[in-house]
Specification:
Elements: H1 2-11, E1 43-48, E2 56-61, H2 64-69, H3 73-101, H4 106-109, E3 114-116, E4 121-122, H5 123-127, H6 131-136, H7 140-159, E5 160-161, E6 164-165, H8 194-219
Antiparallel strand pairs: 1-2, 3-4, 5-6
Helix pairs in contact: 3-8
Length: about 230
Amino acid sequence: MKFSLLSLLIGSAAAFTAPSAKGPVTTTALNAEGELLTVKEKVPCFGATPLGGEPVFIGENYWDKLTSEYGSEATGTFLRAAELKHGRSAMLAVTGFAFHKLGLTLDNISPHTYLSVTQDIKFADLQAMSPVDAVKMIPSEGWAQIFAAITIVELYELTHKDGEFARGGIAPGLKAGGLTGDLGWNPLNVKVTDRRRLSELQNGRAAMFAISAWVANECVAGSVPIPLPW
């Protein structure tokens, strides 16, 4: 499990940089560097990218059902951006959940004692709870700050293109295919390749499954019939 968590963290190094939409292609090699994320009539349904190995896929999915029959190429771009954002949120949730369970909490590393002085909520009190119960203890002011931060990120993507504020006309994010999940934020200057983009997608999918299972197991004991490290 610790190795899986490490893999999630490594795979998310290129987070906040999304794949660009491409036209439909019918015959390409799945493991070709430049074709991993090309929109195809049939695409892999489940897969993994082992460290140092080639991508391995199981099953097929018909992406063109969403991009041609039920929508357009821009629909596919929007759905991919939504998948990226949910995957990134899930990777952060997995990291936070695991840190809480392993005792790497703010009561041990923060110089502050209280999460909220007015509500008398201490970090040590939250550490003694389960992650789910700790989330329930966040005061309304804390939730307001969380949603304010999310709003800032969303507005930035809506109004910026290639890192520049778009002046005049319709906001880039309101145009067809304008929301891609690419915020242009890469402070480590990591070289973004199609393989890294694919790894981010796959790690995000794995994280969505993981956090769903962990929360379910926390709320309903024994609902996940696999051993967990805590």
